[in-house]
Write a structure and sequence with these properties.
about 250 residues; alpha/beta; Rossmann fold
Amino acid sequence: MTKASTAPVRKATIDPSEAAHFGALAADWWDPKGSSAMLHRLNPVRLGFIRRQIDLHFGSDESAMKPLSGKSALDVGCGAGLLCEPLARLGAMVTGVDAAAENIAAAKAHAAQSGLAIDYRAGELAAQTQARFDLVCSMEVIEHVVDPAAFVAELAARLKPGGLMILSTPNRTTASKLFLVEAAERLGQVPRGTHDWHKFMTPDEVTGLLADAGLEIVAIEGIAFSPLSGLHLSANKALNYILAARFVTS
């Protein structure tokens, strides 16, 4: 039997129509008032959660400027690098993978302007790297792939033993349908066609996929909105949630 015949079969996870949709937004990605304005408002909220989980998981000092120094980080579905760049500034050796080549081109250009050395790659995760990382992130991506179970399995395959995974995604609720899809797209807060509510996943569904991949959730918080506080971490997971996971320990 040849080596090729014994290699594991990797399922495709990229939806070409989704890649085309987000690739068309690449030139505008870093404009905080452009089509990705919502992501710019969301990013600091996610980073607050991520930083806290990094400190808790790796035992770093919360006042340390570079808690990820000497560690590797992977951001899957990285877009033009809104999360990759902060992770690099936290000291990580960062790899960013995205389905759209246009996004990767924009990410490389912005990183060069910022003086950051980030390894950006376009295409299916399985085809881009087989390396393992201390930190694996994927923000608002699982709801855009064709096979969520295969996608989570690929993420888990890139996580080092003792590593930390961070995922965020919209919840599939009546509230998210009204506010994240119908209102946000109708009012121009996000580009038309960005969300398919039926592909949103509940925390229980994501928990099940993580468990199948040998991971357990160690922290989960909602990302909510209020007129006074804007987007903020909350116990309310009706719109969106972010979680930290690790391999199950015996």
